[in-house]
Amino acid sequence: MKKIASDFTELNHQHSHPAIFMLLVLPFGILMGYVTVTFSYLFSKAGVPLEHIAALVGASTLPHVIKFLWAPLVDTSLSLKKWYILSNFVTAAGIFTAGILPIKESSLPILTSIIIFSNVAASFLGSAANGLSAYDTPAELKGRVSGYIQAGVLGGSGIGGGLGLWLTQHLNSVWISGTILAVSCLLCCFGLFFVNEAYYTTNLV
Question: What is the tens place of the pLDDT at every residue in 168-196?
Fold first, then answer.
């Protein structure tokens, strides 16, 4: 009886608006833009060699190249919403921690480690958001959702890069801009209130 009720609910629930998934993937893009634009500019201005900056940017993309190694965990452990919240908090913490480091060449090793770990978390966030969209989107809206997700990644990059750099320059403090971006990432969790999750994932511990 419980199984029948769950199936009935799954078939008759109200689908989320596609724009919600744009909100959910914003942290993914914010982290990307913060590294590739804001930090690249700040370290270049501080006189750090371009090859070292390029290595930092390259390191930030590494987790997304090999995320197939851990992506199945999102579907086999915890629920998608729990994965999203956990990975969002780690991503936000990474952005905040990166923002309090001094902008000098000696900071690059620890910064690179933080950025790699944060991008591992962001890859989990992206997988969780995609999983939620796969369940909560009817076939006729999947194209629109895909477009909104891409807009969220690009928009997040603009926030992390453009807004992040603007805040840093006008507030004259990297840690304040990093804090604002980190809080912005956390606020995206409110989008989960408007997203449905499959019953068989909500029962995962």
Answer: 999 988 999 999 999 999 999 999 999 98
pTM: 0.87
Which residue is associated with the tokens 């914010």? Answer: 30
Residue 103: closest CA among 191, 36, 43, 33: 43
Nearest to 49 by CA among 116, 108, 113: 108
Q: Are 123 and 67 in contact (CB under 8 A)?
A: yes
Cα–Cα distances in Å, from 22 out to 25, 127, 130, 172, 179?
A: 6, 14, 11, 30, 21
Residue 32, token pair as written in the block: 């990307």
What's the fold here for domain 15-197?
Answer: Growth Hormone; Chain: A; (1.20.1250)
Round to whole Å and give the CA distance between 131 and 8. 20
CA 173-174-180 angle, to 5 degrees, is: 100
Question: Two tokens at 185?
Answer: 């990432």
Q: Could you tell me the residue ranges of all domains in the chain?
A: 15-197
CA separation (Å) from 61 to 5, 169, 195? 43, 26, 28
